[in-house]
Amino acid sequence: MNRAETCRRGKRTSRAGIREVAAAAGVSITTVSDALNGKGRLPDATRRHVREVADRLGYRPSAAARTLRTGKSGLIGLTVTTYGDEPFTFTEFPYFAEMARAATSSALARGYALVILPATSRHDVWSNVTLDGTVVIDPSDHDPVVTELVRQGLPVVSDGRPAGSLPVTAWVDNDHEAAVTGILDHLATAGARRIGLLTGTTTDTYTHLSTTAYLNWCALVGQDPVYEAYPAHDPCAGAVAADRLLARPDRPDAVYGLFDPNGTDLLAAARRYGLRVPDDLLLVCCSESSVYANTEPPITTLSLKPRRIGTAVVQLLIDAIEGVETDQPVEQVVPTELIVRTSSQRWESRATVSPPLLTRAR
Amino acid sequence: MNRAETCRRGKRTSRAGIREVAAAAGVSITTVSDALNGKGRLPDATRRHVREVADRLGYRPSAAARTLRTGKSGLIGLTVTTYGDEPFTFTEFPYFAEMARAATSSALARGYALVILPATSRHDVWSNVTLDGTVVIDPSDHDPVVTELVRQGLPVVSDGRPAGSLPVTAWVDNDHEAAVTGILDHLATAGARRIGLLTGTTTDTYTHLSTTAYLNWCALVGQDPVYEAYPAHDPCAGAVAADRLLARPDRPDAVYGLFDPNGTDLLAAARRYGLRVPDDLLLVCCSESSVYANTEPPITTLSLKPRRIGTAVVQLLIDAIEGVETDQPVEQVVPTELIVRTSSQRWESRATVSPPLLTRAR
DNA sequence: CCCAGCGAGAGGCACGTTTCTGCACGGCGG
DNA sequence: CCGCCGTGCAGAAACGTGCCTCTCGCTGGG
């Protein structure tokens, strides 16, 4: 009987339980709950006493029980749509890494933790965890996971404006058209006569919007488009595409690369063809990597500000989780930053600069 | 009364509950649970019937309730010890990104999801989620978080051998001494007379073991150590340290850089001083980045195989969670891979190669 | 003097599972 | 004919919280 009581009281639990605290403090379970959560109307003396006893016993409330009761888990899903075969292109580019890092930080600052989940609809995993909401990076058109989540009533915020009629709660993105147009103007101002583009074959909105902006700009200024597309998830394909671009008979005298590794690839290809940068070839690429500050020559990069995007996405999501639910998707545009380095300055670059936010690197 | 019944039956629940399934299928709750989990002794006809009804109703079991009942959440924590002020050096280097990606993949393959958590002991966040175990990257000496977790009886597996007497369940690491010794031998074979080291000021075991191995090697071959140390989390400091190393009166004719960005930094510094690579300076750095395949010249890198490490760490952790608990920490050593490129081959490199696994890049 | 009002806290139900125990029933050996 | 056993399933007790409701004692106004 003593055995039975021992079993019932404190056996397999890791020495914590609200009942033990209540018994030790000589109050009821309700009082403990209220004291620790600051909920009820209790004198400060009782509050302190309960907190003290709880600390002394090393009491940790059970997250599972709280989640079951309240319906809130404090967990946010983080998903990136896969490009290739790998389940995670995650952190393939520094962009994703930075974005995820910022998102994690600001989620934690507000008491939430991030759960990394696959974009593939492995139902068992998705339903094995109670989420309060989800961040989706670059959702593809009519993403089945997103629609499923929204159907369940969960807030979904996407990094990158949703393609098609994807019913997300909110989204954050750059103004990719303006960014590309700004870069092309910048290159033209620096003396480029024929600007090429290194782009991707994937169907995400970033690639699509950027390419379209390029084509529109070309049509506007009357230049024939010169571009090569390759599967962005394959690093070798990038080097090959860079080489092809510079091997063309209508070789461009300036190139913008949409993806992070394009800078080194283009630089290597330029060396192979004896092209000097920036004298014979102007170079800009979209990257968050700091390596381009120390290449020879340093390469001008466009930063999409993934830290700001990650932060904004999480703030919007948690606002949606905790606050009033707006009926319309909230849209937020983060400005890009063009970091001008030697590779895009053919002549002494005077103060003539172009639309997006411009920063002068030393 | 009808109102009350409606409330009790199916009001705020998102149209799923084991009771509804049981009622719809005309069986008991027990039967539904057993049928879906393959547990009890039921004829296949009943199993199929229940599964069918559950699918039709779109039934999703509540993860919170299951966790509360079973004590298992299917969640694994992922933590990296912070170096600087930032809460997350996470994904600062491609190493972490790759490792995290591999860990996430293999965890998902076994039905677990990863939760990113801060190394700082923010108790509220850590205790807000029920973990089955934790992966710790580069735990520092006497890490308070780790000891707390172990005290709670949770399995903890670390990437990087634990410093001091940290009581982890298991750990996975490279043989850093052998790797450094191998590289130094490789450089010496290529003709280096005075090999320098670019290292860090942090106290993690990777930096410590590598530096010690370097000093030991120097003592062995009778070379004066030539090295510069800098805080690894600061990219600018890396460039400055690289410059200092090549500006010394006892300038080395070969350098090994312990951190990912060291390659470009050293290359830029070499250019500033008019040193040709590999003719005047041999270069190797530890990196997982593919940019070094296309720099001018391509740089020899040491890969720590973060994908294999991430996979191994998760396998060990899940084995510990599900399987028998061994009393001794399980240790696992992952071989490194030296990817030899132009920067470390002064003469026609004959087949003389050194200890660790060697791969010849084109 | 009596009762409304209020402060302080106790009791108990519900959240949705899993799982232990146990009941009914039919076949079968003794 | 009776008890026994294996099959097929139902009942109900947890798991640890949060919160709603209710009690109890005390006080001030009518």
Automatic annotation (TrEMBL), chains A, B:
Family annotation (CDD domains): HTH_LacI
UniProt KW Transcription regulation keyword: yes
What protein does this entry describe? LacI family DNA-binding transcriptional regulator
Keyword annotations for this protein?
DNA-binding, Transcription, Transcription regulation
State a single Pfam family of this protein. LacI
Q: Which SUPFAM superfamilies match?
A: lambda repressor-like DNA-binding domains (SSF47413), Periplasmic binding protein-like I (SSF53822)
Keyword Glycoprotein on entry: no
Q: Which domain of life is it from?
A: Bacteria
Q: Which residues form the HTH lacI-type domain?
A: 16-70
**Family matches, as PROSITE patterns:** HTH_LACI_1, HTH_LACI_2
Q: Which GO terms describe its molecular function?
A: DNA-binding transcription factor activity; transcription cis-regulatory region binding
